[in-house]
Structure formats: structure tokens, C-alpha cells
Amino acid sequence: MKAITDYQNKKVLVLGLAKSGVNAAKLLKRLGALVTVNDKREFDDNQNAKVLLEEGIRVITGSHPVELLDENFELMVKNPGIPYSNPMVKRAQELGLPIITEPELAYEVSEAPWIAVTGSNGKTTTTTLIGQMLNEARTTGHAYDAGNIGIPASQVAEKATADDQIVAELSSFQLLGITQLHPEIAVLTNIYEAHLDYHGDRAHYVAAKMRITMNQTPDDYFVMNWDLPEMHELAKQSKAQIVPFSRQHVAGARAYQEGEWLYFDSERIIKASELQIPGDHNIENALAAIAVARLKGVAGSAIAAVLRRFTGVKHRIQYVTAFNGRKFYNDSKATNVEASSVALTAFDAPIVLIAGGLDRGLSMADLTPLVKQHVASMVVYGETAPLLQQVAQDAGVPVERVEQLPEAVRVAYEQSQPGQVILLSPAAASWDQFKNFELRGDQFIETVAALEAEEK
Predict the structure, then answer these.
(1) pLDDT of residue 193
(2) Which residues of the chain register pLDDT less than 50?
(3) pTM
(4) Cβ(38)–Cβ(68) under 8 Å?
């Protein structure tokens, strides 16, 4: 970790906890900052706040009191999930208080160079693949996954050395709070319509994603999905060397699929049929990772070895188990229609779809043709259940509505036939019934395991 003095005796407000907030507060204290943490959750039910208080950090819980900003803070480190419409954040902006997110702080202290990955879908899979490829047959240092993948970047940055590499998954929420973060390689997997309740409109969402390249120079690389025409225009905003990838073998792509093979700069890497993760979208994720790994000098044989054994990341079209002729997949990370659309096209077998979650006021209609083509029946729950019922009815697919996910799993199994896939792909955020998509996916896995034990 770099021994920086920028935060010595600097009054810093950490707004919002969770993993990233806790690690940011601890790091700031070690850097000599005068840290105050403010979290909306009540203290008695706030283990993170208790931990920080025990370490001598000032903690204010139970609300976000705007008057706290009268204390002349010099910086706010904001939890990415707190929107800029929050009164506390709006007041900080009015005061001209700099607002950053935890990855920016991590980058400032990091000795290791960064690779940064963003996109509407595929971020976690691509980040994980890159990390494994960079570590395959590595003789010096280590590549660490970090960021939105679930490991706070500041936690990793403290231990990573100049011989290491940080591969950071960055969300649009996190990217809005960076100023200096400068990846030597940036990746944009794709851009669809997502998080508009946070960003306001698509233009602001796209602008947030493009911040991943804003500090890059002509010595850096920007890996982009060339199958999306929008990327060709967005590429003009970057000073980095553009490295396109394309599943459709669009002209100019350096990583691409041609016939049954995946290539980089005319070098055969692996047959698409050898990938262990299903779906065309995962071919795109593999191509993005191949591009990064080859740019970093990883041998094609090492890249292929990783792809042959990689079976996916948890909660993203994750194979769970199979019994009585049914296969179960957990795609809890599909928090929008686009992500679920990808999952529905990933299987050859008929699907019993479990979907539902937080109603953000967005249309589900785009799912209808895919449901009609790929889904045998649906079980829906949560706030979006009425919208998903309408999708099923429009598609001519049987549908049953339940209240909770465990019940949905059991009903889906009862509806299913041997040879079918039972897929949790919610097409909505988890926050109506779960704190995060991970807990939703974990409950799905636990319910499936209990069901399997009963069926034996």
C-alpha cells in the first residue's frame, strides 16, 4: 500500500456502511483521517457500526441528519447504493463537498495496476475469468478480484504489491464517485437499459459507464463489445487504444468467434463448444476476457485451460444440481429484464421460470417473445408478480403466483417434467423481500437442496 499523507487530519464523512463502507472507514483511520461514519440503520441492529465504534471511529446511526454536514467535512465517501437525490448527498453537493466512492480511495493507495470491468451484464463472469486467466501459470505476484464482485477494493489494495494486479468489477454507481481511478485496461461488456430509477435516464447511465475510461491515455487499452453499434460511437470518447471483441465477427474485432473457434488476432484459442458455461452471452464474456489476458501476455493455452474448467460464478446462471431428470440453475443476479433475457436463451431444454422481485416501474413486456419461445411454465412472486403474470398470459404460457421464493421453488418443481430446466431468473431487484441478490440466490439453493433431500 502506498504511504500517502493526503488524508492526515482530514475530516471525512463515510455515508453508509456495508462491506465497502466498513473497509473505507478503517483504511481512512489508518491514513490518519478524522473519520465520522453515518449509517441509517439503528445501532442496536448494526454490527458494522459496533465494530467501527470499538476501533475508535465516531459512529452516528439511525438516520442521515443533514445538519451533520455543518461540521465542515472535507470529503464524503458515499456508499454507491445511496442515490444522489438523497438529501444528505444533495446538501453535500450544494456545499461543494467532494464525493467519492470506495474504489476511488482504494485506487489512491494501490501499488498494483488496475484492470476495470463494467457493463450492464456479464461483469462478474468477465472479471472472474480475467482473474483466473492472469493467475494461470503465473510465476510472480497474484491477480486479485475486487469491487462490485463482493470484495471491497480497499481491502485488496492494502495488501496488493506492484507485482500484483487488481481486477475490479465496477458498477455505474461506483463509477460516478471516481476522480483519479485509471485502469491500464478497461472493459465495457455491453450497455442495456438498467438502473434508470437511480440515474434518471439512459444518457446519464451510459455517461456513468463511460467514466471507466475517462482517465485512460493512449498507452492504455479499452476492450469493447463491437456487436453493439452504440459502442462504435462511444469509443470516440476514449483516448485509449480500442480493442473490440465480437461474437458476430464484426470487422475490426481483435477477439472474435469464427465458426466453432474463438480467436484473438487470428490465433485460435478454444472451440466455443468447449466452454463449460451456457449461452451466447458467455461467449461474449469469454472473448472479453481473452482479449484482456492476451494483452497481458497470457498464453493462449493457459487461457483455454481456464475456459475448459470454468463452470460459472455464483448467482449468474449457476448450475446448482440435478435430480429426477430436472436441472436447477440459480440466476439471482439477473436483476433486470435484459439479464433474464440472456438466461432464457442459454438453454436448449424447456424452462420452468421462477421470476419476481422489486417493482421499479419498468416494463416487463420485452420478456414476452422469449417466454413464448423458451418457457414451458412460470411461477411468479414479489412486487412484480402482476407484471410477470401478464407476460405469461401474453405468451400463452401457464403461470402460478405465490408469495415467497421457497414456495415458488416447490411449485416450479411440481409443474416441471423430466428433461426440463428449473431456472431462477428474477428479472427484478431483490429488495422487496431480500437485502441483496446473494441472499435471494442462497435461499433458492437451500430450498432446492431441501427438496432434493426429500425426493431421495
Answers:
(1) 67
(2) none
(3) 0.82
(4) yes
Grid coordinates of 341: 433475457
Annotated binding residues for ATP, as ranges?
119-125
Claim to verify: residue 71 and residue 152 sit in the same structural domain: no
Q: Which three cell numbers stand for residue 314?
A: 455464483
What is the per-residue pLDDT for 196?
Answer: 66
Residue type, 149: I
Q: How many Cα neighbours within 13 Å face the side chain of 139?
A: 2
Whether 38 and 128 map to the same domain: the answer is no
Displacement of CA 395 from its chain's centroid (Å): 30
- The predicted pLDDT at position 291 comes to 98
CATH number at 249 reads 3.40.1190.10
Bridge partners, 355 (sequence order):
380
Contacts of 376 (CB under 8 A, 6+ apart): 350, 351, 352, 397, 398, 415, 416, 417, 420
Under 8 Å CB-to-CB from 384, ≥6 apart: which residues?
Answer: 355, 356, 357, 358, 359, 364, 427, 428
Residues tagged in the binding site annotation? 119-125
Q: How confident is the model at residue 445, as a pLDDT? A: 97
Q: What are phi and psi of 175, to 5 degrees?
A: -65, -25
pLDDT digits (tens, 9 = 90+) for 252-267: 999 999 999 999 999 9
Residues 186 and 225 in one domain: yes
Q: How far, CA to CA in Å, does 168 sit from each of 48, 50, 208, 287, 425?
A: 23, 28, 16, 18, 25
Question: Does residue 3 form part of some domain?
Answer: no
Q: Which of 204, 203, 212, 234 is nearest to 123 (CA)?
A: 212
Note whether 353 and 423 are within 8 A (CB): yes
| pLDDT tens per residue, range 130-183 | 999 999 989 999 999 999 988 999 999 999 999 999 999 999 999 999 999 999
Q: Which residues contact 259 (CB under 8 A, 6 or more apart)?
A: none
d(CA 163, CA 174): 26
Question: Three-state DSSP class for 347?
Answer: coil
What backbone torsions phi and psi does residue 2 show, to the nearest 5 degrees?
-65, 140
DSSP of 36-48, one letter per residue? Answer: EEEESS-GGG-HH
Using CA atoms, how far apart are residues 282 and 301, in angstroms rounded to an integer?
19
CA distance 447 to 201: 37
Residue 83's domain comprises 11-99
* Same domain assignment for residues 360 and 213: no
Q: Say if residues 68 and 91 touch (Cβ distance below 8 Å).
A: no
Domain count of the fold of the chain:
3
Residues 279, 392 within the same domain: no
Q: Quick one: residue 384, left, alpha or beta (phi over 0 = left, psi -120 to 50 = alpha)?
A: alpha
Q: Which three cell numbers stand for residue 433?
A: 423481500
- Taking the C-alpha atoms of residue 383 and residue 297, their distance in angstroms, rounded to an integer, is 48
